Amino acid sequence: MSTEEVAAVLRSKRGARGLHIDAEKIRDLERGRRVRGWAWGSPETLGRVARMLAQVYRIPDRVVMDAWRRSRTEDPLPLLPVRRARQPSGKSLDAWSSLNDRQRTYLTCIFQQDQETEEEQRHARHLGAERRPANEWRRMTLALSASSDAVGYTRIQERLRDAGVHDPGAGSSVAALERRGLIFVYRDRVYVDGLGDLPRTRVEMTRPGRAVVRTALGVPREMGPPAPLLSLWLWKIVVRVAGAGTQGVDGSLAGRGPHYLAVGQSPDGRSPSRGFIVLRHPDGVTHGPYRWFLTDSGQRHIADHLDAYRSLYPGIGTEGVGESSG
């Protein structure tokens, strides 16, 4: 897109009112020059512009924010507008109201197991495990057609028993949830040592099913930290590298963290990594093992957001991190 095209699209957005955006302002913004117009000095205004640019370029907010802080170090820190929380869906509330107590218990236990399994998959990916398709791990075993003395209880059945439901879990309640489009039900057979092929019932939450439970129980959708902050997992890595100072961290950083944090392309293949750490020799050393160090962008990110991280992740010790990153 030319700067004229970008300016034209931005002018059409409601958030651009009063900014008098033109191609010259876009060129000044991109080249690190002062942008004329007193309103552009406000952190709130800069945050509005950053959000609109991300929308125009169809990239995450954090990509614009990272580039902004690399190229416009003298600007105030842009404050991105807070996204409005979605209001509970009346349709979801109606669907929950149509269920009886037993059906609600089944749906809630299946949802809880779905969320636990999702967290397990996320943790495994962080440790470097191969990504599994969601249509595999979201299909969870509900019941095996055999005596519990022989096969025990599935994880969903354990949840149901804790909630006071002790039937096998593959009957009318599950069928009712499937009819309403809240879960998918799969029936197949699985081989169990000593017992042979056994009929198996598996279930999978649908998106409407998750929405119903979230709305009914007031469970917020996991949105992650606000842009441009890092997840807890990535922040731990940055703190570790920052704390190592001039010694750096050896190449043993586990999992995919460096792919998200180092200079280069992130694993999604669509957007750049954060560029906060780099693998290099220590200062004054020309050979031997490489070590991880903070980049200037990484140091600036810590300086910009250290207070926010301490509030968001109070359990992560950051004593001296700001000083060592200055």
What does this protein structure show overall?
The protein contains 15 helices and five strands. The protein is mainly alpha-helical and about 325 residues long. The strands form two sheets. A three-stranded antiparallel β-sheet has the order 1-3-2. α1 packs across α2 and α3 crosses α4. The protein is globular and about 75 Å long. The mean pLDDT is about 85.
Topology:
Elements: H1 3-11, H2 23-30, H3 43-57, H4 61-71, H5 90-97, H6 101-126, H7 134-137, E1 140-144, H8 148-151, H9 155-162, H10 172-179, E2 183-192, E3 196-205, H11 207-217, H12 232-244, H13 257-261, E4 277-280, E5 291-294, H14 296-312, H15 321-325
Antiparallel strand pairs: 1-3, 2-3, 4-5
Helix pairs in contact: 1-2, 3-4, 5-11, 6-9, 6-10
Determine the structural class based on helices, strands and strand pairing: mainly alpha
Q: How confident is the prediction overall: mean pLDDT?
A: 87
Q: Please count the beta strands (DSSP E, at least 2 residues each).
A: 5
**How many helices?**
15
What are the secondary-structure elements, in order, as H or E?
HHHHHHHEHHHEEHHHEEHH
Beta-strand share of residues: 5-15%
Strand count, sense and barrel status of the largest sheet are: 3 strands, antiparallel
Shape verdict: globular
- The neighbouring-strand order within the major sheet is 1-3-2
| C-alpha end-to-end distance | 37 Å
What is the alpha-carbon Rg in Å?
A: 26 Å
Helix share, percent: 40-55%
Low-pLDDT residue spans: none
